[in-house]
Amino acid sequence: MSKVVEISPTTRHEGHSKLVLKVNDEGIIERGDWLSITPVRGIEKLAIGKTMEQVPKIASRVCGICPIAHTLAATEAMEASIGVEIPEDAKLLRYILQCANRMHSHAIHNILTLPDMYIPGTDTKINPFTKEEPVRSVALRIQRLREIGQTIGEMVGGEAIHPSNPRVGGMYMNITPRAKAKIYDLAKEARVLAQDQMEFMIAILRNYQNRDFAEVGGTEVPIPKDLGYHNQGYMATDPVYGSSSLDENPTWYPERFTEVRPWDWYMGEMEVSEADPNYPIGGTTPVGTKTWPQMQACTGVPLYDGQPVEVGPRARLVQFKNYDEKGAIGLQIARQMEYPETAYGIINALDALNTSGDVVADYIPQGDGSLGWAANEAPRGTDVHMAQVRDGRVEYFSMLVPTTWNFPTCSRALEGAPWRLAEVIMRAYDPCVSCATHMLVVDEDKRIVTQKLIQ
Amino acid sequence: MDVLGNYKSVISARSADKDIQKKAQDGGIVTTLFAYALEEGIIDGAIVAGPSDEPWKPKPMVVTTKEELLAAAGTRYTISPNLQLIKEATRSYGLDRVGIVGTPCQVQATRKCQLYPIGMRDVDDKIALVLGIYCMENLSYQALEAIVEDHCNQKMESVKKMDIGKGKFTVYTERGAVSQMPLKYIHKYVQPGCHVCLDYVANLADISTGSVGSPDGWSTVFVRSNKGNAVWDGAMAAGLFETKDMADVKPGLDLVKKLATEKITKNQKHVDERKSFGLKSDGTPKALRNPYETP
Ligand SMILES: Cc1cc2nc3c(=O)[nH]c(=O)nc-3n(C[C@H](O)[C@H](O)[C@H](O)COP(=O)(O)OP(=O)(O)OC[C@H]3O[C@@H](n4cnc5c(N)ncnc54)[C@H](O)[C@@H]3O)c2cc1C
Ligand code: SF4
C-alpha cells in the first residue's frame, strides 16, 4: 500500500515550493510531484502594451538571484523581434556580466548545498554558519567569490541585482580603462578562489556519494547509488551565454517546444497519510491534510520534443563537453565544473574589450510585430524569452525559465529515492521557484504561440 | 543652532599654484584639494561641474586628472546635478574612492545616501572626500541667461567669469568689459526650492569653502571632519596653500556669520509659512509638506 508524504515548504532554495510524494512501505518514492506554490505574478500578461525598453526591466524583477538572465534574455528577445544587431563591445560587456552572475550564483548555491553534506571521514554535517575551521575558511572563500561576482556585475551591468546598463540596442555605458583594470584584478583573484572552491566542493560531493547513509531528523537514511537518476533528455543552447533567433545558426528550436497545463501532468487530489514530526525543522505536513498538485501547481509544464528535459550546468556539459555523470550528485559536480570559466570568461572578454568602442547600435528599429526569441544560459539553465514588438511596444511576451523546465524532470528523478532525501535531489537543481512561476499557459495561447513560431 | 556648523578650524587661504589661481573662482581651494587628493591617492576620481556644449551650463563629470579639474574650475551659478554621477562613479567608472564637490544641498544628499542608501548599494563606503561650497541661492539656466543677456546685456559665450558679491551680480567678458546687476533684482529668478534651504556654508562637508569673509582672490575655509583635517594638514604640509589667520582678514568671519544667519532666518520663516499655506473647508490651515518634519 502506498502512502502520501508532503514536505511543504521545501527549504534552502529560492522561492516557495512543495514536494508531494507517493511512497511504498519502505519509504521509497514511487511517484513524486515537485511543484511551485509561489503566487503567479503574471509578468507576461502585464508586459503587453508596455514599451520594449520597460519590459526587460520588469522581467528582471522576476528573480533577484538571476536577474541578469531575465534582463539579457528579455532585452535580446526585443532585439531579435525588431532585428537590431548590437555592437561587439556591448556583447562583450554582456558576456562579462553573464560570467560574473554565474560565479555569484553558483557560490551562493554552495551555501545552500553544504548543510546536506558531511565533513569527509566524519559523520558531522557541514554548518556553513559555524565559526569553526575548516568550514569558516570555506564560507569566507564563498563570500569573496560572491563579492567579486557582484562587484564585477555592478561595474559592467550598472547594478548587481537588476542590472541597469543593458538596453535595447546594446548598453548605456562602456566602462572606463580604470574599471577594466579593476575587473582584471578581481577576476584574477577569483580565478584562484574558484579553482579551490571547485576542488573542495567536488571532494565533498564525492564523499557523499561514497557514504552508505545520511542522517535526516534522527533517522539513518540509506543513500542509493542511483540517487536522482532520470531518463529525460537535456537541453542547452551554449556552454556560457546563449542564442537568439538573430543567430545564423540558432541552437534552440521553438518548433520542438510545447507546453501543457499542470492538470495534465501532476497528480490529482490526495490525502496525506504519512508524516514525520521530526523532519527538520518543524516536520512534514500532518496526516489527513488534503493536497492537490494538479490544482496547486503554479507553473505550466514545458516540454521539448514532447518530453520534460533537464536544463542547467549538467545539460550544458552533456551537450558541449560529453559529460556523462547521472544523478543528483552528478548534477552538483557539473555545477562546480563551471566555476573556472566564470573567471576565465571575464578575463578573455576583457582582453577583447575596447573601452572606447560604441556600445549602442546607431539605429534601433521600432519593430513590425515579428516574433523574436532569445535564450540565455542562466546559472540554472536555458532561459528563453519570446517577444513581438511593434512600434516600440510589446504585443506578446513569454518566458520559459530554467526551473520551469526542471520541475517535471526533477519530479521524475525523485522515483526510487527514500523520501527523506527528496530535498537533496531537488536542491541539486538549484531551484529558483520565483523564476519558474511566471504565468500559466492556457491551451489557446499555446496554439497561437506555436503556430506563429512555425510560420 | 550654530549657523556655521561644526568645524575644527577656519582659515583664509588661497592656492599657491598660479595656474589654479588663474582659473579658479576664488582661492582655488576646491581645485587644489582635489588635485592633491588625486595625487596622493586619497581619491581616485572626483565628481565636479564640468563644461558642456552650452556656454555656462555645467555638466556633472567624473575627472581623474588636474587638467580636467582645471577645465571644471570656477562657479557656474546654475544647477549642476552632481549627485547624478555618485552611483555611476562606482560602476562603469570603477572608482573606489570618490571625491565630490557641491552646494550645501548636494553635500546633504551625499551624506543622506551614505546613511540611508536607498537604491545606492555599495556607494556609502566609496565616498572619500566631500568638499562643500557656500551657497546663498541658485538659478535655473534660463534665469542665468536672463540675468546675463538682459540685465547685464552680455552674450553668454563672451563671458569669462561671473561673480556674486558686494550686493551685485557681476559679469566679466573675455574682451575686458564688466557689467553688473544689483542683487536686489535677483529674487524672482531664484530656484523656488532654495527658499526652504537652511544651510549656507555646507555644514556637512569634510571641508567647505566660499568667498565671503576673505579678500578677493582668497577663500574662507572651514575644516570640519577628521578626514577633512587630515587632508587639509597634508595639503598644508605640501605647501599648497598660502594662509592668513581668519582674525586678521577683512571683512572676516562676522560677515559669514551675518549672511548665514540672514539666510537661515529668512528661509526658516518660509518653512514655517508652509504650515498654514492653505485653508481647509473647516477653516483650519492646510499645510504644504515640510521635509524637516515627519508627517
Ligand atoms: C550656486 C552657487 C552659489 C554660491 N553662493 C555663494 C555665496 O553666497 N557665498 C560664497 O562665499 N560663495 C558662494 N558660492 C561658492 C563660490 O562661488 C565658489 O564656488 C567657492 O568659493 C569655491 O571657489 P574655489 O576657487 O575654491 O573653487 P574652484 O577651484 O574654482 O572650484 C569650484 C568647484 O565648484 C564646482 N562647481 C561650479 N559650479 C557648480 C555648481 N553650480 N554646482 C556644483 N558645483 C559647482 C566646479 O566644478 C569646481 O570643481 C556659490 C557657488 C554656487 C555654485
Ligand atoms: S540655496 Fe540651498 S537648495 Fe539652493 S542651491 Fe544653494 S544649497 Fe542648494
Please give a structural write-up.
The complex is a heterodimer of chains A (455) and B (295). Helices cover 40% and strands 18% of the residues of chain A. With 455 residues, chain A is α+β, with helices and mostly antiparallel strands. Chain A has a domain at 51-263 and 302-404: Cytochrome-c3 Hydrogenase, chain B (Orthogonal Bundle). In chain A, the strands form 7 sheets. Chain A has a 4-stranded antiparallel β-sheet with strand order 9-15-16-17. Chain A has a 3-stranded antiparallel β-sheet with strand order 1-2-3. In chain A, strands 4-5 form a two-stranded antiparallel sheet. In chain A, helix 2 (54-60) packs antiparallel against helix 3, helix 4 (88-113) runs antiparallel to helix 5 and helix 4 runs antiparallel to helix 10 (339-352). Chain A is globular. Chain A starts with a strand and ends with a helix. The radius of gyration of chain B is 19 Å and the shape is globular. In chain B, the strands form 3 sheets. Chain B has an 8-stranded mixed β-sheet, sandwiched between helices. In chain B, strands 6-7-8 form a 3-stranded antiparallel β-sheet, covered by helices on one side. The chains are: A alpha+beta (455), B alpha+beta (295). At the A-B interface, helix 5 and helix 6 of A face loops of B. The complex binds flavin-adenine dinucleotide and iron/sulfur cluster. Flavin-adenine dinucleotide (FAD) binds next to helix 2, strand 2, strand 4 and strand 9 of chain B.
Q: Can you tell me the overall shape of chain B?
A: globular
The domain tally of chain B reads 2
- Got a strand count of chain B? 13
N- and C-termini, Cα separation of chain A? 50 Å
Q: Bin the strand percentage of chain B.
A: 15-25%
Radius of gyration of chain B: 19 Å
Domain Coenzyme F420 hydrogenase/dehydrogenase beta subunit N-terminal (chain B): 10-87
Protein name (chain B): Coenzyme F420 hydrogenase subunit beta
Domain Coenzyme F420 hydrogenase/dehydrogenase beta subunit C-terminal (chain B): 96-248
EC number (chain B): 1.12.98.1
